[in-house]
Specification:
Shape: globular
Order of helices and strands: HHHHH
Distance between the termini: 12 Å
Largest sheet: none
Number of helices: 5
Strand content: under 5%
Number of strands: 0
Bound molecules: zinc ion
Length: 111
């Protein structure tokens, strides 16, 4: 709002990729202290849902809101990711995916 556009242009990708690549390890470290590296990697690996971007054209558009645009970023998909939380085997993946959606949703707010 009060900061220059250049500042946002710089900080936006930093926050976005920081949330995609660093926050999973931070969360893993808080909730899964004993195996934070493995859990963090697993959560970070959920970035693979971005394969759905390949179906869009252009594949990458920094000013596009991914949520409800790409098939794996729809509210229906997010409901499935939420259900993942209820099963121990899929819980970490679920957290990672929801974190991914949250990060992508943040980008929609800036637009
Ligand atoms: Zn995404």
């Amino acid at each position: 709002m009060f900061l220059s556009l250049h500042f946002y242009a710089l900080i936006r990708p930093l926050i976005h990729y920081g949330f995609h690549f660093i926050l999973p390890f931070f969360i893993a470290w808080i909730f899964y202290k004993k195996r934070w590296k493995k859990v963090g990697l697993l959560m970070m690996a959920t970035i693979i849902v971005d394969v759905d971007h390949l179906m869009a054209s252009p594949v990458f558009d920094p000013n596009r809101c991914s949520i409800n645009f790409h098939p794996l970023h729809t509210f229906y998909a997010i409901v499935v990711y939420f259900v993942f939380l209820f099963f121990p085997k899929t819980r970490i993946i679920g957290i990672g995916l929801l974190l991914h959606m949250f990060t992508d949703a943040l980008d929609c707010l800036w637009l």
